[in-house]
Amino acid sequence: MINAIILTGISLLMLVPYLNILAGSFSGGQAILQGKVSVFPVNFTLDHYLAVLNNKAIWKSFGVTIWVTAAGTFLSLFFTSLMGYGLSKSHLKGRSFMMIMIIVTMIFPAPLIPTYLVVKSFGLLDSLSALIIPGLISAFNLVIMITFFKGIPEGLTDAATIDGCDEFNTFGRIILPLSLPSLTTIGLFYAVGYWNGYMSAIMYLRDPGLFTLQVKLRQLLVENDSGSMGSGMLMSIEGIRMATIIVATVPILFIYPLIQKHFIQGAMIGSVKG
C-alpha cells in the first residue's frame, strides 16, 4: 500500500506539467498572459486548436511524421527480427564477434560528424530516408529480440524442418506469430523514437516541405513562427504553442492502450530471460 501511494504521488507530479499545458491550450489568451492558468482552463476556448488545425503547414508536417513513423517502425521491426533470429542461433559462424560489435555500438555510439558524413556520402541528405535508414536497427532492441528468440524451444524449429520448411518459412509461419508480444514492445519503442525524432530532421533536412512535426513545433516554440496561425482576442502565441504540443503528443499516447496487454507481456519476457 505504501508503494502504491508513493508511486501514485510521483505519477501525479509527473502529470502536472502536462495538465498545465493541456489547460493552457483551452484557456483564453489573457488568462495565459496573466498567469491565471494552473491545471484547469480559464475562459475556456477552442480557438487555439482551430488555429493549429487550420494551419496547412502543421497538417503537412503531421503527415510526414506519420509516414516516417509507420515506414520506419515496419522496416525496423522487419530487419531487427531477421537479424535477431539469425544471431539467436549459437551455431552461426562469427556470432560472438558480431555480438561484441553490437555491444560496442551501445557503449560507444557513433559521433555526430562521422554519421553526417556517412549519410551525405550515400546521397540521403534532404530526404525522408535519412530519418529512417541511419537508425534502422537499435542495438538495445536487437538484444531484446535475440534474448526472446533464444527462449523459443528448438523442438519447434526442428519439427518445422522435418515437415519441409526452410528457414524463411519457419521464421514467417512459426517464429513471428510466437513473437507478437516482443514485437509489440519493440515496435512501440521504435514508433515513439520515430515520432519524437528531432535531431535527425534538423541535421539532414533543408526542405521545409519535409519537416517533421517536432521540427515545426520547435519553430513555434523558439522562432515564434505563428504568422500563419491567425490572430484573435482570445488567442495568444503561448496558447497556440500549447495546443501544438498537445496535438503532437496525443496521437502517440493513444497507441499504448491498444497494445497494453502485449506490451506488458513482451516487457516481462525481455526482463526475465537472459
Automatic annotation (TrEMBL):
It comes from the Bacteria. Gene3D superfamilies: MetI-like (1.10.3720.10). It is found in: Cell membrane. The chain crosses the membrane at residues 57-85, 97-119, 131-153, 174-195, 239-259. Its main location: membrane. Keywords: Cell membrane, Membrane, Sugar transport, Transmembrane, Transmembrane helix, Transport. PANTHER family: ABC TRANSPORTER PERMEASE PROTEIN MG189-RELATED-RELATED, POLYGALACTURONAN_RHAMNOGALACTURONAN TRANSPORT SYSTEM PERMEASE PROTEIN YTCP. This is Multiple sugar transport system permease protein/putative aldouronate transport system permease protein.
